[in-house]
Amino acid sequence: MRATADDTCRIREGWWPRLARPLRGSLSRRLLVLTILFVMLAEVLIFVPSVANFRLNWLEQRLAAAQIASLALEARPDNMVSPALREELLKNAQVYAVALRRDDARRLVLSEDMPPMVDTSFDLRDAMAMRLIMDAFETVFAGDGRIVLVTGSPRFGAGESIEIVFNETPLRHAMLRYGKNIFLLSLVISIITASLVFVVLHFVLVRPMRRITGNMVAFRDNPEDARRVMAPSARADEIGVAERELSLMQKEIRATLSQKAHLASLGIAVSKINHDLRNILASAQLISDRIGAIDDPTVQHLAPRLFASIDRAIELCTNSLKFGRAEETAPRRRRVPLASFADEVAEAAWPERELVHWVNDVPADLEVEADPDQLFRILLNLMRNAAQALTDGPADRQKGGEVRIAAWRAQDHVHIDLSDTGPGLPAKAREHLFEAFSGGTRADGTGLGLAIAAELTRIHGGHIELLKSDASGTTFRICIPDGAGTLYECAEAESLAAASAARG
To answer: Alpha carbon of 298 to those of 288, 343, 350, 352, 384: distances in Å?
Structure first.
């Protein structure tokens, strides 16, 4: 069977790239692996000298035991002991022979009748650290049964040197046990140390970097959402500097993008201001006409709304005079009772209600967290469009109809449905519904009403969409999330709310 192209690529790629590939996508995994490797490397640097030192101590103990055994012979006048005592001394010292060099003369102090042949020898008197480490590895890998000759310095100046011949097998087994124990201890220390280092670095470096990265991704998805600008922490280190610089850069980018977009479409900005100004002042004019009749009892009721409309017109005109600042300002959010607020907007949208039946289905206790002025403009544009859909045409053909608002809370989002019973939107208008100068439904319209509503909704972090538009009427849905900390989409919030209701 022939190998596929993917198999060939994997063969050519080699084992190391395949092993390292999972580490490339995650700083956390890479940090964990490197921490374990570095701690294990440090443990190896401790483990090897400790095993070599264990071997040296074991040999020095054997030399000391052999020296003590040789004292029994020196205590005898003829330096002779019985064969049974000699065997017992050699057995206790665990050696086959002991030789002592004193006064430039080498003398065999203790020995079996037929000592075995020596396989190798070690001199501990002038051995360097590297030599001892290499000898320790040689002992471990030599196998059992090797006979060695070890030369060392006797204690308390009892001679120039002492030599012993013994079987290395007990030393090798003791080294293996010691190595196993020290390896397990090193492994436990490595895991604990690596875990502590990883946890500290995760919270000090990795998690802040994930926060910065997540904020950058969220800002890239929707730079116009003011909530996605980085909120820097109070850290004074490099992470804090990066957060503050990123926040400053995002603010500058957001301002630059908004400024350039509006400067490039200055005509749209001016038309937008004129459109909103015409709506607000037209409402104020209609209300002020009623004030002509001083005896009219509605004067006290309508006067506050007249003044509010004029104030909004003045503020809008003042903002338009700031050169290069035609962009919408960041929303100044506060809790707005939606039911009463919608009635106020409806009265400003069409004071004369002979042909328009207004239905407010918003719960009395529902509040939306939004900028009141911007929310007023959003609803005003939609309501005026709805009223125009019901009253457009010659007077003898105007049938009127119903404009209805309904709202509910889904998790931390507020959904607002505004519907009318008009004839629906033309197909051409639906293609460019929220684009300035493209989504108008009337011959003399600019299409700015929906464009303004969409932009104001977008800077709140929400969105507006057309749910339906047919012969039975048109329905728009506005989604406005609460303030900071709500970055998932409205559709996700609605799904979570539905799942929570199903579980409840």
So the answer is: 11, 16, 16, 13, 23
